[in-house]
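Notebook entry, structure prediction.
Reason for the run: the old model in the group folder had no record of what sequence produced it. Starting over properly, with the input documented here first.
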Amino acid sequence: MSVFNVFGLVLVFLYGGSSLIGSLLQLKSKVIPYWSSISFCLISALMIIFTCFFFSYPFLLFGVIVTLLLMHILAIFNGLHMYKKIHVFHHFIRFIISLLIVCLLNI
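New structure, fully documented this time:
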């Protein structure tokens, strides 16, 4: 495991953990649909789990990528539901973080 992999792992825990906490808070506040909060929570947890096992099972990088894509889709849906529009800069930052995670884990 390289230094880049460690940074990728830390980034996954920060990004996935904050997404998990955010989805639990959204579940409590009921601003977005119940199924969306639960899905976001499960997908965030799956991303963290896949990353933990990625170093033993490299094929799980595909699972990490799929969970990141699903998180983007749900974030777009939630943004449309709450604000009736897409915040492009927010999703650009999400994309950069996702790209950084995949690159750091793959080095």
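Summary: Residues 3-106 form one domain.
The old model has been moved to the deprecated folder.
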